[in-house]
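Below sits our specimen:

——
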Amino acid sequence: MEQKTFANLLKLIIIGTGIFGAFICFYVFPACGQTFRNMYPEFAGAYWPWLIFLWVAAIPCFCVLFFGWQIATNIGKDKSFSMANAKWMKWAAWMAGGDSAYFFLGNIVLLFCNINHPGLLLVSMVVVFAGIAITIAAACLSHLIRKAALLQAESDLTI
């Protein structure tokens, strides 16, 4: 496959992920919240704090989609191993790490405000672990892209 085709497929995946993420944020989360609100009226006051908490947690995820779009654009221009892509990947790592920390600390705060359940806190640690894994993977990719960009620049100078 051509790099232009890869770039277009990446952009298609990014668009699909953005649409699916918006669907989850603005339909699934409120619908599930309403279901829990109806099933457990004692937690009705937790609906809006949790919904706002989840919406704020989703903001860095949508920012990472923008970074992915920039990387896909550079791949389409045959600049796969560039310092710009390394920078975008580093920003994605920072966003994932910050979002993981926010999600962890937010769950603790909600627990102390008595609008979180300890079982839910334990389950949300899976999300935090996944965020940390994404952070480490993105940081490693950023490092490798930077190294490859330096090697490519060095190679271009010797030819």
